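Lab notebook, entry 189. We have the chain sequence and a SMILES string for flavin mononucleotide, and the next step in the workflow is to get a structural model of the bound complex before anyone spends time on docking refinements. Request logged below.

Task: model protein plus flavin mononucleotide, output structure tokens.
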Amino acid sequence: MKKVAIVWSSPNTDGLTAAAKNQIMNGLTEAGVQVEEIHLNRKKLEHCRACGNGWGTCRTKGSCVIKDDFAEIYRTLAEADGIVWISAVYWSDMTECFKTFFDRLRRCDAVFNHSLAEKRCVLAACAGGTGRGTLECLQQMERGLTHMGMRAYDRIPVVRYNQDYILPALYEAGKTYADRLENGFDMYY
Ligand SMILES: Cc1cc2nc3c(=O)[nH]c(=O)nc-3n(C[C@H](O)[C@H](O)[C@H](O)COP(=O)(O)O)c2cc1C
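Result returned:
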């Protein structure tokens, strides 16, 4: 059985981001995937201290000196076959919470462990305002993934105006992603 971690961030458990997360989770579950949901806003996550002159044990040991939930989440991601990343759009970017986690993950994984490299991921950005900044948010997420050697299988913009048709599509995306994890990806890079 394939394992997929869904990492998501929004303070709202009944908003647009949560709805997107539920749809893709249901699609994955329907397809027989074991899903681990990681709601970053509920985790204890401090921001990077940029130890020393900028690099700390992230560079020399691939681990972070801060004792919080980071290490356990990192372990879950390393063990997962696939990862779905979903963030609410704040300031045309990921949420502060998402960025905090991503920043520390990138330091440990891109520079030392490389345990996430080659994983194929699905990204979704959920904008409940004007919808502006959704693509920039996805771009920022993909930039971080690329630093870690991960690849985006899809990038899905969710805005409040497209939710009637994009939420059902997210369910289908979950099923398709499950199929690709099981039977191989059809992407060229
Ligand atoms: C600090 C902040 C910044 C935001 N920036 C944007 C934005 O750039 N574009 C947008 O469409 N919505 C923006 N929004 C609206 C959020 O995307 C909206 O709250 C969205 O519904 C988040 O998902 P939720 O329903 O899970 O809360 C912002 C909200 C907050 C709190």
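Notes for the group: Residues 10, 12, 15-18, 88-92, 126-133 surround flavin mononucleotide (CB under 6 Å). Worth checking against the assay data. The first strand starts at residue 3 and ends at 9.
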